[in-house]
Design goal:
Length: 413
Amino acid sequence: MEPYRFDRSEALFARAKKVIPGGIYGHQSPRLLAMGSYPSFFARGEGSHVWDVDGNEYIDYMCSYGPIVLGHRHPRVEEAARRQAEQGNCFNTPTALWVELAEYLVEITPFADWTVFAKNGSDVCTWATMVARHFTGRRKIVAAAGAYHGTHAWVSPVPNGVTPEDRANVLNFRYNDLEGLTRLVEEHRGAIAGVMLTPFRHDAAHDSELPAEGFLPGVRKLCDDHGIVFILDDVRAGFRLHMGGSGELFGVRPDLSCYCKAIANGYPLAAATGRGNLKRAALEVFFTGSYFTSAVPMAAALACLQELKQSGGIEKMRRTGEMLRDGMLSQARSHGFEVTYSGPPAMPYMTFKADGGKWDRITAFCAYAATHGIFFHPRHNWFLSAAHSEQDLRHTLDVTDAAFKVVRKQFDA
Ligand code: PMP
């Protein structure tokens, strides 16, 4: 098979750069990929497959960086969204879906008594810190160093445009280091409002780390002992690992949980759920947005979550994820590579040990895969969806076998 070409993508990107800073910014910027080996613009998606503007077809292992959990254009979600769109989307008040979806989220989330909605993960993460501060009357927020909790100034990974004052009340520790966190809490006794953590460590350009035995329950106890609000940032992992929130998979229940990506199978929606004792603080912290109540994404979310639950989508992603992991690990061995394949099976990430913290081999590997119809990312965890089939997996493994072979040749020299 001839490697893909990206003529239309490249022409569009040249136009984009003239009128949009960077052409494409943020996590979708081609700078983070292997330039020349990836499309910059997609045109269409169906199930586990996507097509770029040059007509190249891919099996999609990024799933729009998380939102696509049932597969692109899932019929039940599309039908629910279409029906609501026929009635209208944006009104002076919410629709009944606002209530129905909140009831559903409270029903499926064991610790939660209430829900709020917004549009982006950044919205709900920042708001959760404000609720923790208002509830405790304290200022400091603890987060793991290198963790991504959105674009807002208190936590943006890039310091440009951020003042020291924006960060003044943010403390860091190393994910999984319960002793380090305990020391921090002792040092700042009575000053910490909230601890925000992702359910597992999934920082970009880094091997993922599952929570160490006892880490999350230890954080829970520390928060309880010191009156600190435990905020789970489940924006990326939520509804891919467990219907009740990813804490359920790891044996911990937070006080507040932030969701976004997979909640509505690609429609724009974020949510936070919380315990009853925080409901008053949640009411008293100002929170609103032009599109927070839009009905179409809520119809999509209800259909998405119900379908995920009824069809056992999470279990399916785990199984296909395990097939991918087992297949790739065995291929890596047979080609003589030591790789680190990390994260839960539905959200894996792979690095080559010989890359030594750089990305040469994994970039060449992903570039070969992308130009042969398999869309992985060299520096960001991948995502399975419930639409990935065994046939997809077989085809994927044919391509990854060839990719390992190509990397072997390139890096033997
Ligand atoms: N938290 C986590 C863990 C995320 O992965 C992201 C998005 N990648 C965010 C927060 C921010 O979400 P958004 O991009 O929707 O603002």
